[in-house]
Every structure is written in C-alpha cells, then in structure tokens.
C-alpha cells in the first residue's frame, strides 16, 4: 500500500502543478476567460474524486466468529465493542484518520414510533391501551401502559422458536433505553460526535441493545493501524442474526463493496447459517469478491495437525459454493493481544505468554497473517486502486499534452507576421467549425442511444418485477403455499387465549415471509441490478468504438491542417478513457441504489376481523351445543377464527409484497437504472470531448489578441517556451508513474 500512497501523492502533486501552470499561463494577454476552463474543471474533478474515492471492505460472518476482534487487530487496538443482540442492525464503518472519533447517527422520533407501531400490530390483549391514537414513546402514559403489557406476557409469548421474540425485545429495548436518549433524539436525524478522550463513550450505545435500537448508523475514525485513509472497513451484524431484515441491510452494503472478508470460527467450522448466507452472496453475483478467513483460538486446538484438519474440512465445504476458495488462517485475538501487549490485564498477558509458547500455532498464525495482508494489498491496490490512479494519470497526461500544444502553437504564432497569423486563424477556425459539428452529432446520437437503452431497461425491469410471471410471483407463491400447523397452537389458545395465539401465528408468518425475502428474493434483485449495470456498460462500450474512431480521425485531420499551416503537430494519444468501471461513474455522479431492506406493513384490522369472526363462530357453537350437535373441541370456534385470521394475514402480506415491489420497481427505474445510463453516456461524451478540448480549442483566440494588445513578444515567447518545457517534464513524470503502476500489476 505504501507504493500506491506515494503514487497518489504524485498524482495530487502533478495535478496541483498543472493548476499552478494554468494560473501562470492565464497572465498572458490574449488568453480569454474560457481558454483553460475545461482543463481547470478536469483538474478540480480529479482532486475531488481522489479525495472521495473509497474502497469498501465488508467483514461478515456468523455471530461470535471474531469479526470485531479481527477488525480491532487491523487497527491495533480495542476500539470496537459490538453487542450480539437481536435488535441491533448496525453496519459499523471504520476509517483511518488523523484523530480518534466516533460519529453516531440517531433515528428520528417518527422512525422510532413507526418501528414500534409495526411491532404492536396484533399485540396480545385488547385493553392495555387507554387511548385510541397512534403510539408515541414520548408520552409517559404510552410508555407506562406498554411496560405493563409486556410485563403481563407469559413466557411462551416472549419466546419464538426457542429464541427471544424480536418484536418483544425491540419494544422492551425502546422502553429501557428511552430515558438515556430522550434528550438526544429529535424530529430529524441527529448526529453526535465523540472525539479524543470522549471516544469511549460511544461504546455505551453500540454495545447495549436498549440504546443501539435508537441508532441508524455508526462511523469510527481511528488514528492507528496501517489501513489507508481511502479504505473503509465495515464490521457487519452477524449473518445468522434472528432478524431477517438485518440480513437485508448487510446485503445492501455488500453490493457496494470491493471486497468481502468472510470470517469463520475454527471452533464451529462452516455452519448451516454460513452456507445459507454464502449461497445468497453467490446468487447476488459477488462471491468472487470474497476471501475467507478462518479465525482460530489456540485453546481450541491441541496441535497444528488438528487445526489443519479443520481447515481442510472448511475448504472442502466452501468448494461446494465457490471452487478453489481463497482461504487464510490466523488468530485475530493473538494479533490483537500482541499489539496491546503493554496495556493488557494480567489475565490476558498470561494467555498471550502461553500462546507465544505454542511455537507451531504462533508461527502458523504469523504466516497466515502475512499471506492475508499480501492478498488484501494485491486485491485493493493492484486490482482496484491502480485502475483508479491510472485513469486519473491518463487524464492529466491529456491536459499536459494539450497545454504543451497550446504553448507551442502560440509561440510559433508570435514569430510570424500579421498575414501569416490571419491565415493560421482562418485555418484553425475552419477546423473548429468541423469539430463543433462533430460534437453536436455525437451528443445528438448519444442522446438517441440513451433513449433506446432506456426502453430496453424499462422492458427488462418491468418483466423482472412482473407480479404474475416475474420474481414477485415467486414470493406470492411462497406466501400462498406456506402452511401453519394449527394443531400446535391449540394448546396455546387454552393457556394464553385467542388474541395471544393470533399474535404468535402472526410472528411466525411474518418471519417466514421476511426470511424468504432476505434469503431468496433480495439476492435475485441484486443480481438483476448487477446484470443491468453490465448491460449498460457493454452497450456504451460498443457505442464508443465508432465515436473514438471519429475523434481520432478528426485529430489526425487537425494535425494535417497544422502541417499545411507550417505549425508543429500535436502528439496524438490514441488511448481512450476507461468506460469499464460503472461503479466509479455511479459514485462520481452520486447515484444511490434504493435499499432492498423493506419490512412488510400490516394493519390492526387483521386482529379486529379475527375477533369478529371469533364472535360469529362462538354464536354458531352456542347453537350447536343448544341443539346437541357434535363439537370437535372446546376451542373449535377459536381454531376456526384462527384459520380465517391466517387467511386474512396472508392476504395482507401479499398486498404488502406487491405494493413494496411496485414501489421498488419504479424507484429502481427512475432513481437508479435510468440515471446510471445517463451518467455513463455523459461520461463517454466527456471523455471524448476532453481530447477535443485539449487540442482544438482556444488557439485562435490568442492569435487574434496578440496584435491588438501590442504584447511584449519576447516576454510572452519566453513564458510560452517555459510552459511547454514544464509540460514535457510533467508528461515524463506521468509516464513514469503509469509505468510503475503497470509493473506493479504484473
């Protein structure tokens, strides 16, 4: 990474030198306000892009696999504290910086209340609230009544599939943490910063579910470690979180990443949750971005042979998902303890000493750490960072060549008489008109091409999201076909009542639908989006070829015109810009994909209708008993009402799914795919025009102005020659830098 940091510094310095050169050249009389405008814009764009370019690395894996410990080891300190609770859904983003600080984004009151309202749909009991309005956690009466209602719930309502009911946990966490955050939250998102000595205070929020439930986002900036400032490390929620919406949020981040580090604990090996999550990553089309890290604990392995046995098993299992997986093994805690050796408590110091004494495992961890660091460096610098830097160097090379040509031609004009200058101006003006027509033609044709691909993208998107034959139809089929074993709930009706049982059934069906969305539907959506991105790229790469030929022909003709006028030709650069990196174009244009993590929304009318049906069935049963008709059980009415309630619940779920997909389809089209097509078209046009701007503009302007202003020709000539020489030196520096990047790639 050190080499690429030096290259980045060289890039920024060359960019600054070119801007300084332009400022000096603008002092020449006869240089109009627009003479260097396009070049200055490009230099400014490069400076902003280098500052904003971010390489994202997602650290994912199952709960307790050692993700946070691994990230801490990268930054050589115990900075992250993460709770493994069921309500936290935060992706903690970490950057290296010049100071230690934590930024926390808190949800608005409206967002918190909305989450609570959804958790309260079908909440058992009908008399726990005295009011009829929407719940507002800021109201003391609402908090008190909800607390009493939660306290009254029986144990079997607090557990679902042997785990804590996520809705009950969320409600309890909101109540428990309210007093600590009531003076922080507001009507809009609030950002709090903890810097320097107060940095540790942020851990109280991210490590406690009662406070983390109020957080929307977390970003840490750490002044330690060797990670580059342009690399973002994200510590993600456990992939086996019991809340499927958390998985969807991780998926949203993964599609933005350039690398995925999947952490597997050697203690557990590859679990079913890992296989399921990795299958989703493969379905998303980003499995090739993943490298695998087996994090081992010294105390779990009697020998190196035992660890190698585990690694072999993990490798064989991973190969079923990704052939020839890239696997590294190390002890993250061993690495972290060594970084913090002087500050470790006595207990941890003794553990570290014991581990150091296990030479085979310690050496194996060191070797694995070295191999892993090399792999990270290769993937992030050679395969990604180098591409970004090389493209910027190419653009600066075009500018330096253009300024040199401008200086050389104008220096030549200063040595000519007025008659020759007029002939040159006329010749260049004739060529400029031709290039203007070519510009207009390219712009018009590209606009037409955008409309054409928009129609294709619209058709593909509508087909994919078609509710009868597209992906949403699979979700609807799952919901319709989902079977609830009603007999398992019969005893619940007896022990907890109808309302509470309806709540449990609701939780089961909602969780099943959300899980299917996260594990099956969302990966398909992300894969589709990646396919459309590739379609856009291929379409414009194909379109670019004839335009590039046109531009090259125009520049060749321009050189021919210069030769006829007795002016030295420009040095043609036949290399074209990079249109292969759609992600770079997307990020530069500020285009953001709408999140796929959406929850099903339900109304309390489900419960009202179920209770009404129960009343009707109870009347029927009353008359059955009155006329001595057979009754299957004492809760037959409740079971029939429960069956109808499930039917109604499924119907509401289908409506919610269809609404969400229709809304998402339109957002995808108009807020992402269409905008991306426009941005790629604009990038193609800008890349082609850069070559025109740097070679065919603004030469005739000074030629006309020289005679009018009576410029000191000797002074102007000296400045122009100095400018040309400086440009040649800059081009040599650019050439050397690009060669260095190419050599590093080999």
From TrEMBL:
Principal localisation: membrane
Statement: the UniProt record of this protein carries the keyword Nucleotide-binding: yes
GO molecular function: GTP binding; GTPase activity
InterPro entries assigned to the protein according to its UniProt record, in alphabetical order: Dynamin_N (IPR045063), Mitofusin_fam (IPR027094), P-loop_NTPase (IPR027417)
Coiled coil location: 713-740
A Pfam family of this chain: Dynamin_N
Keyword annotations: Coiled coil, GTP-binding, Hydrolase, Membrane, Nucleotide-binding
Annotated compartments: Membrane
Transcription keyword on record: no
GO term, biological process aspect, one: mitochondrial fusion
UniProt GO cellular component terms: membrane
Domain Dynamin N-terminal, chain residue ranges per copy: 57-279
Protein name listed in UniProt: Dynamin N-terminal domain-containing protein
Taxonomic path: Bacteria, Pseudomonadati, Thermodesulfobacteriota, Desulfobacteria, Desulfobacterales
């Amino acid at each position: 990474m050190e080499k690429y940091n030096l290259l980045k510094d060289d890039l920024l310095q060359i960019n600054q030198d070119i801007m300084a050169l332009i400022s000096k050249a603008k002092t020449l009389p006869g240089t109009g306000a627009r003479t260097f405008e396009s070049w200055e814009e490009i230099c400014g764009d490069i400076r902003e892009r280098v500052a904003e370019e971010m390489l994202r690395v997602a650290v994912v894996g199952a709960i307790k696999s050692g993700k946070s410990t691994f990230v801490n080891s990268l930054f050589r300190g115990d900075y992250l504290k993460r709770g493994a609770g069921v309500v936290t859904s935060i992706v903690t983003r970490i950057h290296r910086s010049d100071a230690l600080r934590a930024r926390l984004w808190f949800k608005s009151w409206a967002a918190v209340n909305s989450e609570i309202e959804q958790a309260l749909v079908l909440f058992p009991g009908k008399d726990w609230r005295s009011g009829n309005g929407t719940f507002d956690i800021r109201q003391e009466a609402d908090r008190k009544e909800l607390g009493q209602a939660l306290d009254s719930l029986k144990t079997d309502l607090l557990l679902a599939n042997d785990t804590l009911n996520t809705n009950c946990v969320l409600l309890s966490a909101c109540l428990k943490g309210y007093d600590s955050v009531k003076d922080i939250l507001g009507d809009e998102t609030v950002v709090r910063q903890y810097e320097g000595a107060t940095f540790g205070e942020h851990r109280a929020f991210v490590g406690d579910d009662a406070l983390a439930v109020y957080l929307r986002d977390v970003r840490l900036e750490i002044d330690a470690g060797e990670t580059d400032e342009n690399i973002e490390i994200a510590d993600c929620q456990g992939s086996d979180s019991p809340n499927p919406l958390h998985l969807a949020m991780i998926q949203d981040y993964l599609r933005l990443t350039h690398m995925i580090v999947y952490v597997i604990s050697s203690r557990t090996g590859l679990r079913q949750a890992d296989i399921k999550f990795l299958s989703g990553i493969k379905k998303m089309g980003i499995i090739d971005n993943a490298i695998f890290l087996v994090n081992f604990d010294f105390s779990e392995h009697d020998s190196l042979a035992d660890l190698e046995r585990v690694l072999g098993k993990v490798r064989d299992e991973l190969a079923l998902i990704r052939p020839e997986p890239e696997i590294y093994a190390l002890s993250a805690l061993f690495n972290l303890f060594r970084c913090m050796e002087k500050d470790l408590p006595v207990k941890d110091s003794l553990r570290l000493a014991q581990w150091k004494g296990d030479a085979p495992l310690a050496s194996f961890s060191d070797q694995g750490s070295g191999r892993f660091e090399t792999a990270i460096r290769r993937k992030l610098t050679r395969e990604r960072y180098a591409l970004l830097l090389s493209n910027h160097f190419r653009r600066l090379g075009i500018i330096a060549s253009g300024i040199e040509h401008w200086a050389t031609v104008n220096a030549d004009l200063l040595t000519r008489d007025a008659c020759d200058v007029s002939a040159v101006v006329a010749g260049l003006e004739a060529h400029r008109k031709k290039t203007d027509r070519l510009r207009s033609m390219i712009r018009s044709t590209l606009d037409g091409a955008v409309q054409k691909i928009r129609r294709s993208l619209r058709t593909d998107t509508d087909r994919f999201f078609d509710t009868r034959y597209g992906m949403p139809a699979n979700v609807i089929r799952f919901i319709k076909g989902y079977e609830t074993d009603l007999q398992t709930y019969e005893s619940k009706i007896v022990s907890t009542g109808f309302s509470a049982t309806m709540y449990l059934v609701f939780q089961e069906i909602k969780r099943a639908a959300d899980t299917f969305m996260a594990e099956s539907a969302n990966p398909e959506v992300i894969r589709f989006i990646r396919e459309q991105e590739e379609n856009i790229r291929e379409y414009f790469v194909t379109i670019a070829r004839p335009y590039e030929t046109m531009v090259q022909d125009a520049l060749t003709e321009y050189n021919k015109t210069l030769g006829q006028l007795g002016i030295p030709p420009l040095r043609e650069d036949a290399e074209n810009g990079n249109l292969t990196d759609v992600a770079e174009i997307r990020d530069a244009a500020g285009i953001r994909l709408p999140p796929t993590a959406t929850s099903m929304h339900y109304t309390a009318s489900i419960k009202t209708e179920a209770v009404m049906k129960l009343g009707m069935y109870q009347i029927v049963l009353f008359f059955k008993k009155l006329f001595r008709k057979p009754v299957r059980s004492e809760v037959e009415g409740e079971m029939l009402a429960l069956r109808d309630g499930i039917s109604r619940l499924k119907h509401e779920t289908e409506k919610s799914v269809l609404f969400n997909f229709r809304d998402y389809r339109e957002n995808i089209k108009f807020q992402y795919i269409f905008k991306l097509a426009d941005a790629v078209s604009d990038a193609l046009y800008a890349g082609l025009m850069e070559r025109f701007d740097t070679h065919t503009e603004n030469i005739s302007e000074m030629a006309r102005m020289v005679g009018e202003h009576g410029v000191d020709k000797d002074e102007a000539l000296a400045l122009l020659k100095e400018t040309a020489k400086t440009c040649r030196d800059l081009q040599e520096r650019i050439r050397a830098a690009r060669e260095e990047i190419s050599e590093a790639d080999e």
